[in-house]
Each structure stands twice: as structure tokens, then as C-alpha cells.
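Hi again,

Forgot to attach this to my earlier email, sorry! This is the prediction with glyceraldehyde-3-phosphate bound. I've pasted everything inline since the attachment limit keeps bouncing my files.
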Amino acid sequence: MDYKDFGLVNTKKMFSDALSGHYAVPAFNFYNMETLQAIINAAHDTHSPVILAVSESALKYMGTDLLRGMIWGLNLKDSNSVALHLDHGSSFESCIQAIELGFSSVMIDGSKLPFDANVALAKQVADYAHQYDVSVEAELGVLSGIEDENTKSSKSSYTNPDDVVNFVNATNIDSLAIAIGTSHGAYKRKSNDEELRFDILDKVAQQLPDFPLVLHGASSIPQHFIKTINEFGGKISNALGIPVEQLKRAVEKNICKINVDSDSRLAFTAGIREALAQKPENFNPRDYLGVGLKNIYDNCVEEIKNIMNSANKL
Ligand code: G3H
Ligand code: 13P
Ligand code: ZN
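C-alpha cells for the complex follow:
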């Protein structure tokens, strides 16, 4: 299946436009109809490009046929602003599968491999993907945090700016994810005083001035969702994200893709908990899932406008 038949685009033009326009393209993860609807409608209503990100576990959860049916159902023809991206692909085979399914972009995550093995794997994926005009992201440096099986890691190591030019030249990838202090999940840091390593970002951007850089683990963990979740029976303590101001600063400095998953999870959970608690007699899932969907939509709109700066960029 060719991704162009879905009306999808790869990320090449998206990223060159983002670099010159000083904004980031949002990459929002989805895993069911509601999360997909919320994200695509938020991007549509704000006139923002968007990357629909699917992890391997989300792909397994949805099933390949239903995923393709949903993408087909978006009727993207001529929209020119939506990419479908495999998030944290763990192997060459996984990337091939995604490309065959109609993904327009893949990440090969060899970040925990030794440098040379990471290069070899990323190059193998890039050589294959480019035959089909599919974009490839790879990562240098390791993020810490809780996420899916292939990316579980308790230690982090920042990206070494001295490695990035060699890595990009040797692999021919289209974008590079870097580790500058973000991490996956909702428990990113102990206090808002901790700063991202902007010194590393500056050095990487100096080495690769016109190259798209990517920030994973970039949820800001809006505290109002935590409050609502806890108010209506949840138990989430000490969840802290990357402060919005720091994300905005990163966007000004060559970060042109920002990955957000945890914020949408919190938004969905907060909406559902509140809706169920407020109408305990209700057992129509469309009601409470609809509130969760609206929460994700509102948060995506907010982040597109206030963090990514990608509204009205189509
Ligand atoms: O960065 C990774 C995402 O948050 C994916 O998590 O495998 O639970 O969908 P997941
Ligand atoms: P968050 O857990 O910060 O939302 O990160 C998501 C991500 O990096 C997906 O690849
Ligand atoms: Zn990630």
C-alpha cells in the first residue's frame, strides 16, 4: 500500500517548512478511534500540520486492518499536511511492516545500541525506506522513563554533539531525535527548576544547522488533569512534565518535531473519570468517551497554539 493513496505525506517538506518558519510539527500518539479523531480534528481546526504517531504496542492494540480502515476514513486526499509515523520502531522488520501498511514515516530506535550498531541499523532502514519515499527518524542518546517494551530504560545519557554529523552522514536519515533531559511518561522530574540541556541543543544545532531535530518525552503534564484525576478517584502523585516555557525555547532552536503522548493519556483519563463520577447512573460509553475525546482535542489545540507554534502554518 502506498501512503500517498491515503492522502498522507512524508515529513520532508513539513520539516523544512518548520525549520524556516520556526515552529514544530506536533507528533501526537493515538491508539483508538477517539484519540485519532481528537488529534486530527485539533490539527484541522488550527490549520496545523500533524504527525499521527503509532507505537508498536498501539499498532498491536488496534490491529493493522482497523488502523488502515481508520486512516482511510479520514479522507485526507489533497490535505498535504498529515503524516503517519511509526514511533520507536524496534527493528528493521518492524519498519518494513509499517512501510508496507502505508506509513509515510518511521522511527528506528537504535538509541540503546553501541554507536556503530545504531548507525548500521539506521542506515539499513533509511536505504530501504527511501526507495518508497518514506522518511526516517533515528535517535542518538538515551532518554529515561517508562514506556513500551522496546524503549524501557532507567538510565539516560545525553546526546554527544560531537557524534551527530557523523551519524547523520553515515545513515542518511531525515531527522534526528536527541536526548537533552526530556524523558517518557508522566514522572519526568522532581522540580520545575530543572532545565533542559540547552547547551547541548545549541551545540547540536551548530553542527547541524539546517537539519530537523526531534524531542521525545516532551509532554508538559498539565496539572489540571492530575488534579481532576485525583479528585475523581485516581491516584497520581508527583507527576511533573517539561515546563511549557522550556518547550517553547526548544522550538525556537531547531526542534521541529515534538512528541506528546502522556498529556493525551491524562486528558482522556481525566475526562472519563469526571464524566463517570458526575453521572454515576450513566452507562453509555459514547457519553464518557466523548468527554475524554473533547479533553484531548482541547489540549492538542492548546499545545499546537501555545507550544508548537504550528497553528495557521498550512
Ligand atoms: O514514546 C512512546 C509512547 O509513549 C508509546 O507508548 O507503547 O504504551 O503506546 P505505548
Ligand atoms: P511523553 O511520554 O512525554 O508524552 O512522550 C511521548 C513520546 O516521546 C512518544 O514517542
Ligand atoms: Zn518517544
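DSSP finds twelve helices and ten strands in the chain. Residues 146-152 have pLDDT under 50 and may be disordered.

That should be everything now.

G.
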